[in-house]
Description:
The complex is a heterodimer of chains A (306) and B (441). Chain A has helices at residues 2-10, 12-33, 55-65, 69-101, 107-115, 122-133, 138-145, 148-154, 169-194, 197-205, 210-239, 242-247, 256-266, 270-305; strands at residues 36-37, 43-44. By secondary structure, chain A is mostly helical. In chain A, helix 2 packs across helix 14 and helix 4 (69-101) runs parallel beside helix 9 (169-194). Chain A starts with a helix and ends with a helix. With 441 residues, chain B is of the alpha/beta class. Helices cover 36% and strands 15% of the residues of chain B. Chain B contains 18 helices and twelve strands. In chain B, helix 4 (110-120) links the parallel strand 3 (99-104) and strand 4. In chain B, helix 9 (244-259) crosses helix 10 (270-281).
Amino acid sequence: xGSRWTWRLLALPGVAWLSVFFLAAFYxxxxxxxxxxxxxxxxxxxxxxxxxxxxxVLEVLENLWNGDQYLTVSLRTIEFVVIAVGLSLLIGYxxxxxxxxHAGRWKGIVLLALILPLWINYLxxxxxxxxxxxxxxxxxxxxxxxxxxxxxxxxxxxSEPGGWLNGQPSTVILALVYGYIPFFILPLFVxxxxxxxRQIEAARDLxxxxxxxxxxxxxxxxxxxxxxxxxxxxxxxxxxxxxADLVSASTQTNMIGNQIDEFMRQGSEKVTGAAxxxxxxxxxxxxxxxxxxxxxxxxxxxxxxx
Amino acid sequence: MEHPKESxxxxxxxxxxxxxxxxxxxxxxxLAGCENTTTPIGAETAAGETTGASAExxxxxxxxxxxxxxxxPDNSVTWAITDxxxxxxxxxxxxxxxxxxxxxxxxxxxxxxKKFQKQFNTKxxxxxYNSADEATAKLASGAVEFDLVxxxxxxxxxxxxxxxxxxxxxxxxxxxxEKNIWPELADPFYDRGARFTVPYVVWMDGIGWxxxxxxxxxxxxxxxxxxxxESEAYRGRVGILDDRRDALSMPMQRDAMHKGVRPDLxxxxxxxxxxxxxxxxxxxxxxxxxxTITDYQTLPEGKTVLHHSWSGDLLGAAFYxxxxxxxxxxxxxWGPESNGVVQNDFFCIGxxxxxPALAHEFINFFLDEKNAYxxxxxxxxxxxxxxxxxxxxxxxxxAIPDTLEQAVVRPDQFAAxxxxxxxxxxxxxxxxxxxxxxxxx
Lengths: 306, 441
């Protein structure tokens, strides 16, 4: 009995942390979103749910329903994030697979190399890209030499030679991938690393080709890792605004985070900003529930298989 | 407290009710705090009737926050000095300091500040803010302790007065104000008698461009603003100021210039604001402009070649940001002679300042002709409204290239253009919504 309580006590710091810095903070956003503003345009939170003013949230929903600006940026944000997560999977899976299965004694070094970029501040890395991708930058010259620029031009993903920073959606998506991909690879690496090699050997012994063993054993068993990685990178991507600001600054690449930033930091309508934040959070909550359900199902099915 | 977005209440109702809707501000007290010198604006009427719907006003001009009048050139305002907040007495010895200043980053010459420190044997501490909104919010919350605020402007003054953040000034410490500053700014319409504020610098909105990369002679065009709508050739290298008021007022100026009329750049006519948004949005397909305020860096580097710019940033660019081998004469600036945007910002002293006499001395020090000149030419690039500083003399002395003559604002030009001023809550919403639409692409 006593030891059970000791274990529970260990959860206390985490619970206290989450209560103060997540739940209370989130409730403050809710209270502002369902609040009002005074005549100086300062937000006035309504803490009591019975007093809630749904006007601002309704206005945001109405705007979405009518297909106005919030719908435009929401759809664009979803598009950017979905493509960026897809690209992260395409690039990240082979890396994680190689590191877990074939890096051998280099595993530690490869992992270190993956984490290394995180030692440098995100903003600094993005600012570096601005210089690399400038028309006379090394990056854009290399992209030109290797024919990647031509490929992008042909596919219509780049509007003019050397114009990587001229407000291109493709540049914003690639910057997002670059910024967040280590967070995708790490959980995926752990998932693949944990796969019991004997299961793959068993598949091979039973006559599966390497490809079919991969497709029918390794890939399904790494799905929880893929999902964890996808959740880990898509959550911050959905709220990201500085990436688009730095590598593009065009209105054509602004995401929902840019709209929230506009209202919260610069405009006089912080309540609308809070309402948009709430909208984004609700959407992410749905995604989180889907993730939790899927991983729980994966866990149960793994147990039954075992 | 009502608001247009309070569910169940129409926008029209709000207009009527807002007069009595000063949330937690002590309406009567605040309203008593202003003496409106020209147009009787009905503020006194509202003070007596705080019940809401009954306070229907016949208002010639929109009312600002807390029902205070919104200063306009034709509606100047003298802010009242109340008994609980008097200026300091004459002849107080400057305090030991340190003098706490709240300012935009990189907006005052460190060398001139050092000179002040030495002369008054004190320390100056500068905390910085990123936007006027951030500054007023932090000042109101008491999160920032300050003696002196720099960089706020006529678009914030009503908020500052309404929240009683400022200490009235004692002009006996400020002989340089009358001696050196343009008369219209020594006694400005937004603060008659300069009771709470003293002008710091002036600037105007115009067009900055690289004359070695843009083929058109922008300044010679009938309506130079048109260049943005003819900028296909510079796609991706065009910039618009990332500021709702500056950016949205630009197509308004263009329209008015075509029609040969004077625009109201503080308009609260939703149709006019929405039209400006549509015109700005039309730039997307033409040249996909960047929405930034980094022109002082991107123009010298050639990352942008055509930019909607603040005049001071072009001079700052010429002083500081030219890459090796690129002469500052490749930068050009055009600003309208009339009907465009001019702005000025100001110094003001905090109501709770612990070093008010020292703060007065600091203001007077920066109003000194030589110090103002050094601060301008050696650092900020923003013109101080000094009687003896003019562009011709600066070009002659080689301080600025002649392609940037127009980036030095002249007093007659200042008078013929318009300042972007604080709007009513309602009007601000029109601008905010239009800006949000534009930024969504």
